């Protein structure tokens, strides 16, 4: 279901907000976060409803939020990390409902790439003052991704990271330390049959990564000519050729200094559709926006046919030149 842009804008300007908030995101300060968001919305005279959930309830609660927003002319808001935002966005896309986010996760790539503050008060102000912008969405089989989708090494990194964060806390430095230790271990090589734009080839790789987030890709150093694929309405594919421990240490250093995309072991390319079949496997673990799930092969990566209509900060008007009093 879709609505006109005028209807979407009216919902964004005056409709109620239905805030799906993951109580496990951030650092457990849900009450404080809610209070800060409420203060902004109350001051603006906007109505709202909080739907605070545990991760297992996210999918059904997101669907409920969309139905409430459709019935009452409102906006669905996802408050949490990139995984939470992904789940809520899946319910929203194609529904004819505007979308907004309050970033509360570890890295918040989706919010940061769209210039949405990580501070709850400032992010809530975007709900009130922001404007709608269409945002590209990626698909892999029946799932969507806003930041990335991957198989192989990166998906393994996410799986280990979640275990470490459960033990040591959901802090950025825990995630980074976990990633470093995971990268330095020996890793499985994947034999893949891939097809894009009618061309099929076989590759051996440690990881295949489909990127849809300019900020993340810039941070690791994907070359500008490959980043330009996002501006053309494509996704950015990246593959890592098999290397040993010493070579991996070199790649880690390149990634630290934002030069990963310039390494000869890294191959990047733009695409709109990509079919990936791992040899000898019917199911495979896929990392999607920071979460890991099992999916049936082959994997079909593509740009979604519909965009998300996202509330983002309104552009700051250019300052007017000072008036010369002598000419006034």
Features:
alpha+beta; 11 helices; 37% helix; 30% strand; globular; disordered C terminus
Question: How would you describe what is shown here?
Answer:
The protein is α+β, with helices and mostly antiparallel strands and 328 residues long. It has 2 domains: 5-136 and 308-312, Rossmann fold, CATH 3.40.50; 143-303, Tumour Suppressor Smad4. Helix content is 37%, strand content 30%. The chain has 11 helices and 18 strands. It has helices at 5-14, 30-44, 58-72, 82-92, 109-113, 120-129, 153-168, 172-183, 214-220, 224-231, 245-256; strands at 17-22, 48-53, 75-80, 99-103, 131-135, 138-140, 143-145, 148-152, 190-196, 199-205, 207-211, 235-240, 266-271, 273-278, 283-288, 291-296, 299-303, 308-312. The longest helix is centred in the middle third of the chain and has 16 residues, at 153-168.
């Amino acid at each position: 279901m879709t609505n006109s842009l005028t209807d979407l804008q009216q919902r964004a300007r005056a409709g109620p907000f239905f805030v799906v908030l993951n109580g496990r995101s951030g650092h457990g300060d849900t009450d404080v976060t809610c209070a800060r968001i409420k203060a902004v919305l109350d001051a603006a005279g906007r109505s709202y409803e909080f739907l605070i959930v545990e991760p297992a309830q996210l999918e059904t609660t997101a669907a409920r939020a969309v139905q409430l927003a459709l019935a009452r002319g409102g906006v669905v808001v996802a408050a949490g990390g990139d995984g939470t935002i992904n789940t809520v966005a899946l319910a929203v896309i194609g529904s004819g409902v505007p979308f907004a986010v309050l970033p509360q996760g570890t890295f918040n790539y989706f919010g940061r790439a769209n210039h949405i503050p990580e501070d709850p008060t400032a992010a809530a102000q975007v709900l009130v003052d922001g404007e709608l912008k269409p945002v590209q969405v990626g698909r892999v089989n029946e799932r969507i991704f806003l930041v990335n989708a991957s198989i192989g090494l990166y998906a393994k990194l996410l799986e280990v990271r979640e275990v470490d964060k459960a033990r040591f806390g959901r802090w950025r430095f825990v995630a980074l330390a976990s990633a470093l230790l995971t990268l330095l271990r020996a890793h499985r090589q994947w034999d893949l049959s891939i097809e894009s734009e009618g061309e099929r080839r076989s590759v051996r790789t440690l990881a295949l990564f489909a990127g849809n987030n300019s900020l993340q890709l810039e941070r690791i150093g994907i070359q500008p000519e490959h980043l330009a694929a996002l501006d053309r309405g494509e996704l950015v594919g990246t593959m890592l050729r098999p290397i040993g421990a010493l070579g991996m240490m070199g790649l880690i250093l390149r990634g630290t200094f934002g030069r990963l995309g310039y390494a000869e072991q890294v191959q990047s390319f733009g695409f709109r559709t990509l079919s990936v079949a791992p040899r000898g496997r019917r199911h495979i673990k896929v990392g999607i926006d920071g979460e890991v799930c099992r999916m049936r092969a082959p994997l079909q990566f593509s740009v979604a046919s519909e965009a998300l209509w996202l509330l983002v900060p309104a552009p700051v008007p250019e300052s007017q030149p000072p008036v010369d009093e002598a000419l006034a």
